[in-house]
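Appendix C: a fully annotated inverse folding record. The material below is reproduced so that readers can follow the format used throughout the book. The structure is listed first as tokens, followed by the designed sequence.
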């Protein structure tokens, strides 16, 4: 059974079939096409009484032309901030997003996070993210919800009362501290198991070992994160003057 768009000749056969009073199914059999194809074609182009093959062909070509133009507009990269090379920026963003996906982030979420990091303001509205990433509002909403849960983005309202999603100096610090708190909850839960199972059992010894290990790791991560945050703040203060 042939596929693809109807040809001009097929449309003339449809017009002749309609003039002869044939049913859609009978016309479709003559074309070796699904009945639904003929039905949709006729109803889309004037109905049984108003169908004209040449007009239907012209309308289809016009729709195809508009579709190609729309696709080309979506594919055209938006102007970059500061006169940057759009193609180089796009390649960099793709490689940056790959790093995040390799670390476990979903692809859409990684792309959104990179969009925020590579914007000078460090923040974008949902509408701006939709335009920049060429995705649906639902995709943006889902990715933002995931990133907020991980402590990787925050939101605030601008002067127009629109919500903006931002990354800032402390975003990775807060994300790491979220991990630290989760580890400490793990240690606390393991120790409750020691009480439940009895301190003289092998299971309790195992759980206490886990708790002590996690305590040490969590404390080490916390101290390292606080030291790194101080270094980052000092760097930002040193380099903030030229942009003020």
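Designed amino acids, in order:
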């Amino acid at each position: 059974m042939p596929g693809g768009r109807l040809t001009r000749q097929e449309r003339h056969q449809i017009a002749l079939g309609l003039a002869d009073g044939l049913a859609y199914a009978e016309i479709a059999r003559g074309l070796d096409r699904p009945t639904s194809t003929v039905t949709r074609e006729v109803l889309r182009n004037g109905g049984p009484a108003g169908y004209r093959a040449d007009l239907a062909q012209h309308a289809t070509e016009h729709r195809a032309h508009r579709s190609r133009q729309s696709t080309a507009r979506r594919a055209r990269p938006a102007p970059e901030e500061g006169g940057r090379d759009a193609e180089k920026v796009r390649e960099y963003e793709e490689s940056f997003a790959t790093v995040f996906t390799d670390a476990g982030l979903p692809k859409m979420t990684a792309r959104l996070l990179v969009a925020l990091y590579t914007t000078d303001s460090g923040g974008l509205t949902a509408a701006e993210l939709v335009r920049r990433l060429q995705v649906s509002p639902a995709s943006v909403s889902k990715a933002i919800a995931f990133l907020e849960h991980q402590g990787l983005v925050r939101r605030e309202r601008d002067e127009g009362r629109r919500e903006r999603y931002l990354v800032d100096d402390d975003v990775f610090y807060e994300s790491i501290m979220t991990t630290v708190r989760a580890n400490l909850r793990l240690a606390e839960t393991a120790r409750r198991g020691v009480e439940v199972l009895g301190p003289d059992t092998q299971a309790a010894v195992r759980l206490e070992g886990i708790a002590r290990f996690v305590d040490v790791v969590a404390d080490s991560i916390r101290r390292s994160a606080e030291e790194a945050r101080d270094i980052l703040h000092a760097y930002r203060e040193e380099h903030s003057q030229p942009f003020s």
